[in-house]
Structures are given as structure tokens and as C-alpha cells.
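Recall that a protein's primary structure is simply its ordered list of amino acids. Everything else, from secondary elements to tertiary packing, is in principle encoded there. The following example makes that idea concrete.
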Amino acid sequence: MKRVLIVIIISLIAYNCTAQDKYADSLTTLLSASTKPIEQFTLINKIIEANDATLGNYQNEIYGTQLYRIAQQLQNDSLLAISLNVIGNCFRAKGDIPTALEYFFKAIPMAEKVNDKRRISSIYIDVAECYASLQNWEESFKFSKIAEINLPGKSSPMYDYMLAQYYRTAGRYFLKKNQPDSALFYIHQLEQVNRRLPKANYFLIEFIQSATAYAQLKDNEMAELYFKKANRLTDSIGTSLLLINFCTNYIPYLLSTNQLEKSLQYGRQLLKTGAELKNNIIKITASGFLNTAYNNLHKPDSAYFYLAMESALKDSVFSQNNFNKIQALAFNEEIRKIDEEAKLNVAKEERKQNIQFALIAFAIISFIIAFLLLSRSFITNTKMIEILGVIALLIVFEFLNLLLHPFLEKATHHSPVLMLLSLVCIAALLVPLHHKLEHWATHKLIEKNKAIRLAAAKKTIEKLEVS
């Protein structure tokens, strides 16, 4: 029954990938006919997402450049964040981690400015993947937790897509820490998301991580079962990224179970793919596997050849300059975060003080108006009430603006037009209320003035009668 289910899943994924290819082709046709920049941007981004769904690559720098050019032309922070994210992934796919991180860290503040949770979460996941490529698992997990905090709302169509990426990263972290029980918790969570989000790469990750966890638990029978599932899925889809993902996880298992000839087969395949993609990090991984396999087969010449290859590649990828650059980028991001928090705290304190000042001013104006209305000793000009009423209206409007501004920013995603419309709506509610209160106050004032005049007239008459 399980085998039938696996075949059905693989068939559905293969069908879905074919459909995605057709969808990407139709988008490309629409793009060639489009002349509007924002429409072109949307279509290019959809093509990239469609390619990702079928594990197409992010290496198409032409698309990344086009997105960035349009975003700059429109001066749109949201579009700039997306384009920088795409360009960063172009460099990540080629194994140029320092440059990829540079683009990702540039994109983060732009995505934060427009409060684009989907994009913020995506960028932090990509940063986590960069550190995973460098085998810095602690930093990778740290950034994946930031991605989790910034997940889009559950109602978002991208929620499951981003959640699956977080579970993938968390599961891998605990496997690298040799904590299979903790890893299986996240793998099971990923499994639940996969049933709602049938994407080939996430099913592959689920199978691979399950196999690795069972191998760490010394349950080789279950490990073999899941690796077979992963292998069938890799063969049925047949893309480079799926193959890389499978080989980099399967070969260590083959080496640990002394399946050396098989490990050589997949190691050569991985090295060839890394060379085709011009990705030195993949080539380092493959040459390391091949070195270990030949050592275990007692073939020192071949082992030395791949050891030398691995060493030369490591010198170029993990050089001191690259390491310093990555550290500097991470440090700059930490400083930016601290500065942003400080600015937010200052802004909050200023807003708090302004609200207090507005309340004090409103209380003073209200007291003066009440005094003028209730005083029985002198006649007041209605013009004074009108002027004070206008001042009170302005103070109330400013108070509401200060109070509601942070909520309006979140609700409108910092859109000036929507912010203006929101404030106009508030004013539209306040003005009629002000007119009613002004009319009531004027009426009261007239009645009070009449009463004062009548009382004064009575006193004058009484004095005349006495005299």
C-alpha cells in the first residue's frame, strides 16, 4: 500500500512539474507582449517562482537584472527587495556566498520598510542557506529562527511555502547536531505541510531527512526505504538541484555502510553536476566524498588526486578574505538592527510625549470652553467659542493621528495614498461631530448671555424703583 502511495505521489508531482513548465512557457509568451514595467516585473517574478516549483534554477541573471532595472525605474522598495533577493540567489546557486549575502542584507531593510513578511522570511531563509553552505550550522539555525518569526499570516497563500522551508532548515540543523529525535519532530511537521503543498523538492527533503534520522538511530532498514523513495523521486523529476540534494545526503550514508562502489558512482555524478553549474562548494563536497571512498578502497593515488582538488577548491572558497567579508556583512547587519531598534525606541518615546502634550492642550481648551459656558458673571462673544472649538478640533485630530499612526502604517503598509485616505476618513467623522458640538455650545452661550443680560436689566430696574 505504501509503495502504491509513493508511486501516486511521484506521478502527481511529475504531472504538476509538467503543468508548471507549460505555465512558465505561457508566462514567457505574455512577457514578450507586455510593455508596462509593473506588469513585466510581476510576470518575470511569476516565471522565477514557476521555475522554482519545478526546481528550475535561480541562475538566470538576465531575469534578476531585468527585475532590478524595473524596480529602480519605479523607485519601489518592495520591488527592489524582491529583485535583490533574486540576484542574491543567482550568486548563491553559483557558490559565491559573500556576494549572495551582500545582496540579501541589502534587501532586508527594504522588505522591512514595506512590512513584506513573505519577503523578509524568504530572505532570512536564504541567508540561513548561505551559512549552511559554509557548514556554519549555528548561524544557519539562528537566521532560520528569524525567518520563522517573520512568517506571513496563516491566511497568506505563501504561508505553507515559507513554513516548509523553516521546517526543512530546523530538521537539517538537528541532524547535523546528531539529534535524530529532535530532527524527526520537524520532519513530521514538514510532512504535514507537504500534504497541503505538493512540491517535489520538499517531498525529497522529507524523504532524505527521514532516511538520515533513521540512519543515525541505527535503523538501516528504514533508512534504506526512505533513500529509495528519494532516489525514485530524483530520477523521475531529473533536475540538477534535486540530484545535488539527494547525492550530498545519500553518499555519507553509503560511506558509513561501506557501500563504496556505489558512493563512487554518486560522487562522480555530483562532481560532474558541480562542474556544470560552476559551483565550487558542490565540487568541494564531491571531491571530499571521492577522497574518502578511494581511501577506504585503499587506492592512495586516486585518493590523493581528489584530496588535492578539495584542498585547492577550499583555498578559493574559504579564503581569509571571504571569511572576513562574511563576518563584516553579518556584523553590519547586527549593527543595523541595533540602530533600527534605537530609532524605534526614540520614536515611541517622542510619540508618547506628543500624545501627552496633545491631551494637556485639549484639557486646557476644554476647561476654557466649559468655563465660558458655565460662567454667570460676564457675557462672552460667540466668535471666541468658534475659535476655541476649531483649535480643539485640530488638537483632537492631531491626538488621533499620533495615537493611530503606527496601526495605520501597518494596515496600509506605509502607502502614502492609503495613509492620506485614512486620515481623511477620520477628519470626515470629526468635522460633523465638531459642528454639532459647536452649535450646541453656541446655543448654550446665547442662552447664558440672555440670562446675564436679563439679570442685569432686573437689577437696573430695581435700582431705579428704589430711587
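Residues 320-374 form the longest helix (55 residues). Residues 328 and 334 are 10 Å apart (CA to CA).
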